[in-house]
Amino acid sequence: MKLDAPVTGGPCWTELGTSDLDAARRFYTRLFGWRPETDARQEAGGYTVAHLGDAAVAALAPLYQPSQPVAWNVSFAVTDADDTARAVTEAGGTLLLGPMDVFDVGRFAVAADPGGAVFQLWQAGTFPGAGLFNAPGSLGWVELMTRDPEGAMSFYPRVFGWTVAPSDRYTQWGIGGADFGGMVTMDDKFPPEVPAHWLPYFAVADVDDTTAVVQRHGTVLMVPTSVPDGPRIAVLRDPQGAVFGVYRAGDET
């Protein structure tokens, strides 16, 4: 990710919805060295913000609805959640929740693109988003997994104004030339029950060491792999079933 702070249209936050908040706290603290702090207000519902030093880097939360899957979610920064929500539906997407205020910290909405991938909109109030990117333990890249790449390349630039750098190997998303993510077409290697989704990648000091930790406590879906002219990456799954990626900090993505 070339972006190093929340930028309008870009990824600004990632949060985990999990079936076992205490277990997730232990797992990710062990893996990334996070310092989790749970909001004590009853109306916050156990929402827990993970920190590296003084910087907020991600959130962990219980499942709030029976239909909510165990998964990592990606939020994109917007200046007006209501206007962007309308743009989502006008571009063929679906509004799933909101827009609604979260105390004084911001206004958010949950939406899905035409291919079914769910994402969030975040209009900052007192909280702009992650305070650290690309450093070990923080968000470093986001990747759309979709069965409708053509639809995605039409939808996201229309909603967020993204630039698109397509290639035969890998399509990348950017804002003003600063790439922050990419897109993978889901082929027959993906079971049909796996929905389109956004996958966050966290920077780590050593992909192989991080993968070894996950092998003892979670599942390795893609072993550490060096991408030609790119980073070393792995795709992992935590004990509750949430999938995420890691890449070596300092590598160009």
Automatic annotation (TrEMBL):
Q: Which Pfam family, any one of them, does this sequence belong to?
A: Glyoxalase
Domain VOC spans what residues?
10-124, 138-249
InterPro entries in the record, alphabetically? Anthracycline_SecMetBiosynth, Glyas_Bleomycin-R_OHBP_Dase, Glyas_Fos-R_dOase_dom, VOC_core
Specify the protein name.
Hydroxylase
What is the phylogenetic placement of the source species in the record?
Bacteria, Bacillati, Actinomycetota, Actinomycetes, Kitasatosporales
